[in-house]
Amino acid sequence: MKLTGAQALIKSLEMEGTEVMFGLPGGAILPVYDPLIESSIRHILVRHEQGAGHMAEGYAHATGRPGVAMVTSGPAATNIVTPLCDAYLDSVPLVVITGQVPLKSIGTDAFQECDTVGITMPVTKHNWLVTDPQDIPRIVREAFHVAMTGRPGPVLVDVPKDVANQIMDWEWPDSVDLPGYKPNVKGHPKQIKDAARLMGEAKRPVIYAGGGMLKARAAEALRELAELTGIPVVTTLMARGVFPDRHELALGMPGMHGNYTAITALQRADLLIALGSRFDDRVTGKVDAFAPDAKIIHVDIDPAELGKVRRPDVPIVGDCRNVIERLVKVVETDRAKREWPDLTPWMAQVRGWQRDFPLQYEQLEDGPLKPQFCIEAICDHTPADTIVAAGVGQHQMWTSQHWRFDHPYTFVNSGGLGTMGFSIPAAIGAKVGRPERMVWSIDGDGCFQMTAQELVTASSERIPIKVGILNNAYLGMVRQWQELFYEERYSEVYLSPDLPDYVKWAEAMGCVGFRVDSPDEVVPTIEKANEIDDRPVVIDFRTDYREKVYPMVPAGASNDDVILGPEIGEGGR
Fold first, then answer.
1. What is the β-pairing status of strands 167-169 and 2-4?
2. 2-169 and 371-549 agree in CATH topology
3. Which amino acids are annotated catalytic?
4. Is beta strand 537-542 parallel, antiparallel or unpaired with respect to 20-24?
């Protein structure tokens, strides 16, 4: 069968099971958009290429399948670099197709030419410049394979315009042959036995679950391991939902803005079972002071993570779900042979921390509206499996703290790169991937102004997400740092509470807009928003600008120096 390179590209995407892609056409990619008209693939036309990338990320977060985005050359390619980098740091599987100037024009500074392969090489698992249309099916199959296997991540295929127009003989490859790419998924049996031995000796163990657990679809395996051993579980920002918050062994989120119990449990542990986590600086604080008495079991599919920050006593390279399922069997055998330490004293200490140092805020009936109250109200008045997408900043931390995540794959956020503007397009992508679920975007006024135009996409495509803007008229997290560490020198953080008018803006984009000024309006407005299902809804929550995120571990400080609040001070004293 004779096809153009463009037709072969679309057919290859169909062969890989692509149901939806997000994109924006332009000159160099135009040949590929033509056969898309006859394709079964649904195309979502975005208003900015960054939105296409973040929508593809949201889709991947929510479904576990690779998100697909397609844009043209030059500025379109550079606009999607931020989502690529975001996906790279958070291990999100993306397949991005970019147009490129004709082969003979590459290197001549042609119109809308840039070195897309060179620019994106540091922020993709791999990328390809197609020089022969006959290679397209093979390259597409390799791209999906690389994106989804091992440590997931983004890949990019750059397609010159003339290659897209050339004729090729269609042939779909039966398999993928990448001799230098063989991820180890099983984990070494001896290392798994050594891990069980250490677990059987620990008196203060903690399971430190990271985002890799969600990528491995390991939620059920984690619960089985925790309940078998009675070991408590902390879930990082990128792992929220992998272990139910309401479970008696759940300690919540550790790190710079984690809760006191999760932070301190890691610090006092004698064993950390790190599963799909990378010892991020936001979790460890000052590395030399992090969990000083703990031995380390570290399981990760990426061997580069083992020993990168903290040298493990038992390193295990492998897929987290696979390793945990095998570890459970070894633990069962080990527990039958010998008595493991009684964890009752350790759990009593943990329960004491939970009792004495809970997350705190005060919402007065006639007082200013607290952002935490808004988040808890949304959580309490939505289905338990609602997907929530957060932007980056104070509202992201409050969402992780105050939303109860009892289902995996329900928190979509930007962890490693910390991309402002992530929430709106990511929520759209999540809703496209899981249309049967309710999807809320929790955003800040600063983040909202970066990518709000994608609500036009949501309105035109009938993608009914809900948006809650926690509007404090500031770049809140920056203001918090300036207040705490820069002697209240508020340099360039004020945004204005009334410019823009968010209700009018929402209405102009085809959404329903509401404004909430007082606590008694919160729940009725959320209920109104939940009843609307034919268009997006935006609620402007006018929140207290003075509210800060606590607890907080200052940057570069030890986790022992956690600040619980302005009245309490450091270390809970």
1. antiparallel
2. yes
3. 49, 111-112, 161, 477
4. unpaired
CA distance 549 to 322: 37
**Orientation of helix 423-433 relative to helix 49-63, angle to 10°:** 50
CB neighbour class for 355 (10 Å; exposed up to 12, middle 13-18, buried from 19)? exposed
Cβ-count burial 440-479 (b if 16+ within 10 Å, e if not): bbbbbbbbbbbbbbbbbbbbebebbbbbbbbbbbbbbbbb
Instruction: Identify the architecture of domain 2-169 in CATH.
Output: 3-Layer(aba) Sandwich (3.40)
Token readout for 184 is: 């180890």
Per-residue pLDDT of the chain (573 residues; tens, 9 = 90+): 999 999 999 999 999 999 999 999 999 999 999 999 999 999 999 999 999 999 999 999 999 999 999 999 999 999 999 999 999 999 999 999 999 999 999 999 999 999 999 999 999 999 999 999 999 999 999 999 999 999 999 999 999 999 999 999 999 999 999 998 999 999 999 999 999 999 999 999 999 999 999 999 999 999 999 999 999 999 999 999 999 999 999 999 999 999 999 999 999 999 999 999 999 999 999 999 999 999 999 999 999 999 999 999 999 999 999 999 999 999 999 999 999 999 999 999 999 999 999 999 999 988 899 999 999 999 999 999 999 999 999 999 999 999 999 999 999 999 999 999 999 999 999 999 999 999 999 999 999 999 999 999 999 999 999 999 999 999 889 999 999 989 889 999 999 888 999 999 999 999 999 999 999 999 999 999 999 999 999 999 999 999 999 999 998 899 999 999 876 544 443
Q: For residues 165 and 56, what is the distance between their CA atoms, to the nearest angstrom?
A: 26
Residues 159, 32 contacting (CB under 8 angstroms): yes
Q: What is the end-to-end Cα distance of the chain in Å, rounded?
A: 75
The radius of gyration of the chain from alpha carbons, rounded to an integer in Å, stands at: 24
pTM for the structure as a whole: 0.95
In the structure encoding, which two tokens stand for residue 28, read together?
């160099």
Q: Is 397 left (phi over 0), alpha (psi -120 to 50) or beta?
A: alpha
**567 burial class (0-12, 13-18, 19+ CB within 10 angstroms)?**
exposed
Euclidean distance between CA atoms 573 and 47, whole angstroms: 50
Write down the domain spans for the chain.
2-169, 189-356, 371-549
Measured distance CA(277)–CA(312) in Å, rounded: 12
DSSP 133: G
Which CATH number is associated with domain 371-549?
Answer: 3.40.50.970
CATH dotted code for 189-356: 3.40.50.1220
With 0-12 / 13-18 / 19 or more C-beta atoms within 10 angstroms meaning exposed / middle / buried, residue 363 is middle
